[in-house]
């Protein structure tokens, strides 16, 4: 599997400099586009995490920005004239519940009870764009592909549940990742 994007620095619309109409509760909520290529042909489902390892010195943990599970590959649009067979479009996080209701999104770090944020699912269970407070951060998008859906994951699952289900599945998941930079 190979993950790619048309950028190495996350564009402003999907990050800290997002316009007010691209925010909810002050948080950027329009997810960025990316591509998934060379997926194992036996794989039928995609799952991913988008996290900020550079947040560890700032807040003491790796910030979770977006988690997705049980996305059927055949529900995605295939364009055989494009070099990228699987394309995750911009704003997919907000559109996915209506487009592909069987896929689920988990909680991100904005759902933490320690932050005292509003419990708005548009902010706590969808994409949260990068907003590094101290310097540019490198964010990690990790994608897995499996033959079967991962059991027991419902809307609002936690990232650790996704990782446990991947391990418990008994499958050797196809996987890849990419680092993208978010500007301070």
UniProtKB/TrEMBL annotation:
Pfam families: PBP. InterPro entries: PEBP, PEBP-like_sf, YbhB_YbcL/LppC-like. NCBIfam families: YbhB/YbcL family Raf kinase inhibitor-like protein. Belongs to the UPF0098 family. This is YbhB/YbcL family Raf kinase inhibitor-like protein.
């Amino acid at each position: 599997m190979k993950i790619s994007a048309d950028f190495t620095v996350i564009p402003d619309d999907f990050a800290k400099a997002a316009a007010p109409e691209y925010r909810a509760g002050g948080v950027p909520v329009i997810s960025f586009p990316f591509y998934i290529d060379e997926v194992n042909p036996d794989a039928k489902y995609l799952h991913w995490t988008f996290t900020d390892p550079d947040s560890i010195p700032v807040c003491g943990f790796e910030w979770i920005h977006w988690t997705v599970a049980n996305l059927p590959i055949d529900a995605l649009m295939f364009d055989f004239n494009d070099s990228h067979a699987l394309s995750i479009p911009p704003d997919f996080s907000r559109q996915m519940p209506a487009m592909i209701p069987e896929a689920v999104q988990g909680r991100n770090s904005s759902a933490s009870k320690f932050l005292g944020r509003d419990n708005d699912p548009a902010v706590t269970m969808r994409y949260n764009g990068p907003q590094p407070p101290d310097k540019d951060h490198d964010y990690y998008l990790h994608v897995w592909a499996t033959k079967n859906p991962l059991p027991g994951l419902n809307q609002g699952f936690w990232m650790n549940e996704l990782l446990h289900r991947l391990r418990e599945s008994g499958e050797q998941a196809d996987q890849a990742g990419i680092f993208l930079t978010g500007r301070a």
